[in-house]
């Protein structure tokens, strides 16, 4: 299987049956070989450095009820909070003084944190810290909203698609949510010009090897 690993490094993909064998039959020796290849690729692109982000959890309130999520609206066993704009900007001030140059505003899809509020917060951070990256992780929004945030100064967005398989997606989410909608949001973000981060949840409830291969 080493030849498959070498080809995966060169071509960045394999046939489904090859992926399946690597995922289900990989022994300790092959795993060490995979790790070595991954380390070489990482050093090639990033060098021997660690990149630190200032993660600011601005709210744990959410309109959605995703079954796996601890901050889902249906969870009664959680103390809810929202940070004020003043608190968020104070976090940025402390972070900047400590050497952080990337701020990540992350939270649930909170209806109280309106587009206008987020736009003002991003504008203030961009004006105060023009040399910093601003990442948002606030869930699904309209294309127009993503454009507003981008113009205000946000330049990165994190939105996990969680699983590509539609049936598995429905296992993890209520009926009103759609995997296709999530993928459209990701396409909108990329088209607008955001550095876009996404990914799956490995080990999520109901996930199969086939799901991972599909992703």
Q: What does this protein look like?
A:
The protein folds into 2 domains: 49 residues, no CATH class; 164 residues, TIM Barrel (Alpha-Beta Barrel). The protein is built from 9 helices and 5 strands. A 5-stranded parallel β-sheet has the order 1-2-3-4-5, with helices on one face. 18% of the residues are buried.
Averaged pLDDT? 95
The domain count comes to: 2
- For the record, give the distance between the C-alpha atoms at the N and C termini, rounded to a whole number: 21 Å
Q: How much of the polypeptide forms β-strand, as a percent range?
A: 5-15%
- H/E element string? HHHEHEHEHEHHEH
Q: Which word captures the global form? A: globular
- Report the radius of gyration as a whole number of Å: 20 Å
Instruction: Specify the CATH class of the largest domain.
Output: Alpha Beta
Strand order of the largest sheet: 1-2-3-4-5
Q: Summarize the amount of helix as a percent range.
A: 40-55%
How many distinct beta strands?
5
With helices defined by DSSP (H or I, 4 residues minimum), what is the helix count?
A: 9
CATH homolog superfamily of the largest domain: Aldolase class I
Helix/strand class: alpha/beta
């Amino acid at each position: 299987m080493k030849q498959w690993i070498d080809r995966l490094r060169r071509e960045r993909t394999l046939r489904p049956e090859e992926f399946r064998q690597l995922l289900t039959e990989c022994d300790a020796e092959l795993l060490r070989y995979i790790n070595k290849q991954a380390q070489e690729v990482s050093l090639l692109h990033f060098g021997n450095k660690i990149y630190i982000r200032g993660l600011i959890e601005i709210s744990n309130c959410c309109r959605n009820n995703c079954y796996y999520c601890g901050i889902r609206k249906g969870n009664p066993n959680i103390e809810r909070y929202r940070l004020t704009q003043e608190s968020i900007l104070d976090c940025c001030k402390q972070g900047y003084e400590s050497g952080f140059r990337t701020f990540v505003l992350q939270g649930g899809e909170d209806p109280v944190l309106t587009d206008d509020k987020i736009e003002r917060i991003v504008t203030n951070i961009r004006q105060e810290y023009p040399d910093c990256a601003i990442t948002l992780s606030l869930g699904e929004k309209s294309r127009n909203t993503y454009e507003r945030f981008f113009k205000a100064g946000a330049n990165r967005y994190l939105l996990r698609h969680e699983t590509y398989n539609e049936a598995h997606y429905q296992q993890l989410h209520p009926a009103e949510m759609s995997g296709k909608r999530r993928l459209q949001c990701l396409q909108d973000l990329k088209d607008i010009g955001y550095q876009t981060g996404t990914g799956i949840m490995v080990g999520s409830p109901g996930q199969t090897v086939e799901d991972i291969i599909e992703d």
